Amino acid sequence: MKSKIYKFKNLKTLTMRKKIIAILSLSLLSLFTKAQNVADFETFTLSPNSFYKDTNSVDWQTSNAVFQYDWDKGFNYWSGGFSYTNKNDSSNGGFMNLYNCITYKGYNNSNFYATGQAGGVIKLKSPNNYVNGFYITNTTYAWKSMKSGDSFAKKFGGPTGNDPDWFKVTVKGYLGGTMKPDSSVFYLADYRFSNNNLDYIEKNWQYLSCANLGNVDSLKFFLYSSDNGSFGMNTPAYFSIDNFTTSQGVGINELNTINSLNIYPNPAHNTIYLNSNSELNSSLRIYNTLGREIQNITVSLNQGNNSAQIDLSELAQGLYFIELTTKEEKRTIKFIKD
Prior knowledge:
This protein is mainly beta. It folds into two domains: about 5-30 and about 260-335, Immunoglobulin-like; about 35-250, Jelly Rolls, CATH 2.60.120. The chain has helices at about 15-20, 140-150; strands at about 5-10, 30-35, 35-40, 60, 65, 70, 75-85, 115, 120-125, 130-135, 165-175, 180-190, 200, 205-210, 220-225, 230, 230-235, 240-245, 250-255, 260-265, 270-275, 280-290, 295-300, 305-310, 320-325, 330-335. The longest helix is centred in the middle third of the chain and has 9 residues, at about 140-150.
């Protein structure tokens, strides 16, 4: 996906009547942050084609977080949490091949990434208290299982391809031991479309924004699938992540002043406007409710009553999130495409 740069001058041609009808002020959650801290796992040392293993269940850490790791000594296997790895095997989909990602290598063709299990926990290291997001994809084991089926799990879509199967990860934030109400959700596979050509099992690295979780001290990962049996989920409960990005939140404010950023109209059809009285130079990403990035552009506004026009003509109807990021600030805006 290519990035675009949009620059707009004052749109004085919009009538006051149109603005009054169109502008819908939203409560925008604004989290002011210091520099981002990215854990790309490249500083670790491993033998080629191997992974982190500790039979004493010792958690491992990066500069910004501590990653849970559990080993079952009784049955001698990796029983939970996360393992960093440099394994490169996108062909072997057997249950003995737990650590590989389907993309073969890490995000942006890097050597290291991390693989996690359902129930895995990541604890942030102070002063980091905000998770910007991370890249996520399927493991080789899970991808192959969903694609073709195995002795434990079904082939997604079933014999006809019409079964509405799905596999998703739900990320919950915690603060002081209390689960926060919001979630970040990503569908690692989705066969619920009426048009089977839209069905997919994720095979690339995709960015999952966690901006809506706000101030947290830890994350917990939950996996759910449409394929379940007597003993729970049949789909292999594994996923891979890379570039785990955090920052230090220094203030959360509701923007209700004259300098508030508004979007209009909302709901929108083929065009939406960002309106601000302040100078704005920001990257802008649009995500759907599955956590998939739809657009990635750059917006530049001069000081004054300015509006940026964003083309929505290629988006399907539904709920979306705009994420704006500057050097000092991150904001998430919810809107509806009708």
